Every structure is written in C-alpha cells, then in structure tokens.
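Archive entry. Fields below.
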Amino acid sequence: MRDVGPNNKTMGAGKPRPAGIPDRLGGLWELASDLSWTWNPAAPALFGAIDPPLWRRTRHNPVALLRAVGETRWRELAADDGFLRRYDAACDARDRVLGGGESAASTWFARSYAEFAERPVAYFCAEFALHESIPIYSGGLGVLAGDHLKAASELGVPLVGVGLMYAHGYFDQTLGPDGWQEDADDPLDPDLTPLERLQGADGIPWLASLQGGGRRIHIGAWRLRVGRVSLYLLDTDLEENDPADRGLSHQLYAGGADHRLRQEAILGVGGVRVLAALGIDPGAWHANEGHAAFMMVERVRRLMRDGRSFTDAVSRVRASTVFTTHTPVSAGHDVFSHAQMREWIGETFWEEFPHREELLGLGLHPDDEAQDRFHMTAAAIRLSRRVNGVSARHGRVSREIWHGLWEDRAAGEVPIRHVTNGVHLATWMSDGVAGLLDEWLPAGWRCGPGDEAMWRAARDVPAEALWRVRRRLKLRLLELMRDEARRRWPDHWPESAHLAGAGTLMSPEPLTIGFARRFATYKRADLIFRDRDRLLALLSDPARPVQLIFAGKAHPRDDDGKRVLQRVYEHTRDPEFEGRVAFLENYGLHTAHGLVEGVDLWLNLPRVPLEASGTSGMKAALNGVPQLATADGWWEEGFEGDNGWIIPPAPATASEAEVDEHDAEHLFRLLEEEVIPLYYDRPGAGCGDDAPAGWLAQARRAIEVAGARFTASRMVRDYARDYYVPSLRGDD
Ligand SMILES: *Cc1c(COP(=O)(O)O)cnc(C)c1O
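PREDICTED_STRUCTURE:
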C-alpha cells in the first residue's frame, strides 16, 4: 500500500529526540511520537515505570515525561535489565500494532480491497478523543472519531483524519463547594505532545487560507500519527493572522453562532484546501456529523471553478461522500442565517463567480418559512450519496426527521441507513479481561475481525477467574478516586463532607453502580433520586448494600445541565447516604477508563429516543460490566435478555413527567427485584467461593455480545464495505 501521508516536502521528519534519552532507549521517543502507544499492550506500563509520580502528574503524557526525566534516572534505566526487557517487548509490540512492511499487505483491508488502497478516505470531525493528554474533545462524538482512526489503522483502511487543533483544549472541570461547575481552560502545549507543525510551500507557516469578514485568514496544520493513520489538525493561531482571527481555533464548541460558523468554515473549507496543499487526493470523503458540511460545499465550488456545471459538480461530490448524522432531534443541528453566511464566508464561497443562490440552496430546509437559513445537516444530506445514523433506532428516527427532504417518498423509504457505533477494543478492554480472554479465545483474537462464533468462547471463562479480575478492577477504581481526592482536598474541599462525596469512604464489597456522561438534561442523571426513601433503603441495606458513582461535565453554557449536576453533587454530601454516593470530577478519557472497568453495573437513562447511540455502555460491557438502560440507542439492539437489563418504553402517549415517573418506577423495580438479588446470590458462599454465578453469567454474555457486535473494528469494516468502497468505486 502506498503511504497516504503527505509528500516529503512537507512531511515532518518527527520531532528531534530530547538529548537526555540514551541511545539504547531511543525507541521510547518513537513510541511516544505515535499514538499507537495508547493501545500497545506493553507501552503504558513501560512509560509508567520510568517515573510513576511524574507519569501521574503529566496526565500519562509520555512526551512530557520523556522531556522531564533527569540524567541520573536515565543512567539507572539503561542499566536495568528488567526495564530493558520490557522496553524491547514494547518496541516489538509496536511493530505488530503498526503492522508495517510485509504485514501491511495482510491487513483486513489489503486482503479484501487491495485495488482500492491507492486513494485515501478523508474523515472529517470537529473533535477527536485519542488520549487524555491531547484534550481536543468534549465527549462521545470525539471518542467515536478517535476510536474510528485507531480501528482504521489496525484494519489497514487508508484513511486520513481532519480536525481542529484547540490550543486551549475543552475545559477543566472543578466543582465549587456548592457543586456549581467551574470551567477553566485546559491549555495544550504542542511541545508536550507528538503534534508536528507542518510547513507550507517555501517554508511559510500556513498551508491554506480563506477570506472571511473582510480579511484573509491563514490556516496552519499539525500532524498527529495514529498508527498507520495521519490526523491533520488545523488552526489559525498564526502571527500572520489578525489577532481577532487567531483565537478562532482556540476552543472547542465555544463562542456564539458567528464564531461557530467560522470554525466550521475552517474545518470544512480549510480542510479541503489543506489536504490539496499537502498533495493528498482523497477518493472518498466522510463527514462525521454536520459540523463538517462545508467540506462538501467547498468541493462543489472547486468543481464549478474548474468549469463543471452546478448539477454535475453536485453529482460528483455526492458520489464520493459519506455523511453520518448523530443528532436525533431537529433542534440539535447547526443552522446559520444567510446574512451570517454572507458576512463571514460569502467571499470564500462566491467571490469569484456568481453561484450564490445555488450554493445557499443546498442548505435550505422545506420547513423553514422564510427560506433564509442554511441547515448544515440538510446540506450534508443533499451532498452525500451515502447517509447513515448511528444505531438501528437512530436510523429510523433520522428517516422521520429528514423525511421533508424527500417529499415524494414514504418515511420508510428515505435513503438513510445506519451503522451502529462501536468502541475500540484494545483501548477500552482492560488488561485483566483481555488477559483472561487470551486463555479462552482462539489465538489472534485481539487483531482479527472476530465473528459471533469466535466470541461464544467468552462463555467458557471460569466464573472465579472473572470474579478475581472484576474485583481487582474495582479496587483500582476506588484507588483512582482516592488519588483524585488526595490531589484536590487541600485546595477545594473546606468540609469533610466533600471527602466523603469524592468516594473515599467506599469499599469494594457493595454492588457499585456507575453513571458517567455529559450532563445534558435528557440523560437524567438525577432520575434515581426521584424517590429518596426508596434509594436510601437500597444504599443502606446492611446485607446487600449498593453504592453509586457519578461523573460528567455539563456544557459550559448549559445552565440546566449544571443545575442537574449540582443536585446530584448535593446528594453526595448527604450524611444519610453515608458516603455511598460519589462524584468523580473532571470526566475525561482517564476517569472513563477507571469507571467503565471498575464498577459492577453501568447505568444509562436517556429519555427515549434522544440518545442516538451511546457508547459508554459498550466499553463497560467489554469489561464484563452489564448495563441497565432505557430502550434507546444501541441498547435497543444490543440487549439480548441475559447481558443486562432494559427499561421498557413508556406508552407513546405519556407526557414527559409521566415518562420520567414510568422509567424511575421500572429502574427501581429492576434493581430491587433482579439486579441486587442476582449480585448477592452467592451459591458457593459456604465453601469459600463468593463468586455470584448468575451475575457472572451476565457479565460473560456482556463481553461476548459487545466483542462480537459493538467494537470499532466491526463499525469500521461496515463503513469500509458498505460506504467507503462503493464511494471509491464511484457506484451510484
Ligand atoms: C465514551 C465516552 C463518552 C460517551 O459516552 P455516552 O455513553 O455516549 O454518553 C463521553 N465521554 C467520555 C470521556 C467517554 O469516554
């Protein structure tokens, strides 16, 4: 397969290795310079062993770590045989993870579709969550995009990612004593990341530009290696730009509508131009969510500039474009007024030629009376031959929402399909569980695209062995919460109640329920507190205790979400709950790992049908943590009757309050009558075996179902087979 990266003129040769690292350990820098280390089974522990406190302080950032280690420590390490053996193992594992050389020809994509490996698929997304040391993500969409790149690397799908480089990150969450969320910048120093600044032609610092608000805005680019995949992150933070434009790319989902419009122009229009400047010529284009729709408009514009008619340009763009929508409510999609468009990107799109009405028409929505707004999702749907939602249920919902664009068809015939989301197995399955599966699944199960027959073997894992692993993971989560508490209490917590609320009183025995996600109101983090007495009875039952751990950020401008968070936080300090309700601050990839691995039960309570897919329950399931959830998103198709629990849908005629009432009642009933009794049913208890056999049967089925059907590998294979290859082939 040809290297689909940029040509050598612009390709960074990698950052120079810090002088201190001895030659014998020089490969550490290479490991750290490519995010494939994050799913290399030997690398994280290797970095951690170099200097454990420093590793924690740097947020598990190997570049920052390697820059900070002193000469004495390097000398010790270079003479430490045990460390050298681990180092060699991690370097070997990297070769396997990357599968370069001969094994590049043996990847799934190369074996299945060798003739389509020439031109890459360009994958556009406004956020990518690859590792917590690169905080350019807010949540689910970013994690999905990051997992997509990792799986594409493993499968050998020729993909390049395009996103934005947010130098100020998303935000760092701390809660005030009253539980009100405070949002601080979470700045990102590129020197302490593997990001490489790319040069434009003749060494100029930008690769492309666009005209906006009467000024020229130059666009720079950074390159990040994610195994075989390159991710290009664009920014405007260049001296050559007007100070007002330099901040355009600073922060994710910040600012008002104008700011957002301009950011999306940088992503979409800038992305197409930067790829062209790098000599990358994609054969297919994938917009992950509507933020990137201008990528399609810009391609129409370029074709028209080159002499094609509008109709011809649109049909060419459509044939090679894939669009994934993630939002199941009409109001959740970006819409810009034509006046805004004229002001900020008019010069970009139509300064040279008179096709304004046609381009603006691409974003019209039939329900819009004034017909003076540009709907990003409507434009993306019109310009994509292949459109999908992210679960079976969300596919149906999307066909209804977007029915208006196909007046001549019945809702069921609207050409929107679905590819259910999945999570990257090597990222989200803990070492403990993966190590167990090594013994019971066929060799090579980690790399191969396993099928349902292969995953059946997960049922053979012995209950006691899984129980031991589950217990270790829970202890690790409790330790993580204590670590966080040690870090935060002197500055932030004036009262002892806060220490209890951070989970420091929690023990490993109780059934531990996790709830972690964005604090959007529809996710209903507070549903379980509707009946305080009933909850209290569950938490404080001395024979069968339960504890609850919450985590999640509210969007900085979502005061309703912040109020829900504040209410939940209040319960963590309620003395009657005896420290059995905790909140873990600053939810991100690292805390997500601790939670999805360490709790016993994963709780997910979106108000149906507002969750397009949801993925955290898949991560939990891969670790043997069954989910209890409403029949929304992926759970509607993932629930098999013996891999967790489902809250049946409320009657269609119910009001919102009635739905909440109905769902809370079912939640309590399931906990009281099924979940808790099963967890505490210990058939071998008298004989020194405290493993709950029935519970662990559910846990194994959770692993089996998630492993077979809800991994990013399955998801990317679906995209490649049904969306990318037909686009690369130019099928209609
Ligand atoms: C997986 C993940 C999400 C998405 O979880 P949902 O179940 O889709 O809400 C959000 N944030 C982080 C940090 C995650 O790891």
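CURATOR_NOTE: The domain at 119-421+717-729 is CATH 3.40.50.2000 (Rossmann fold).
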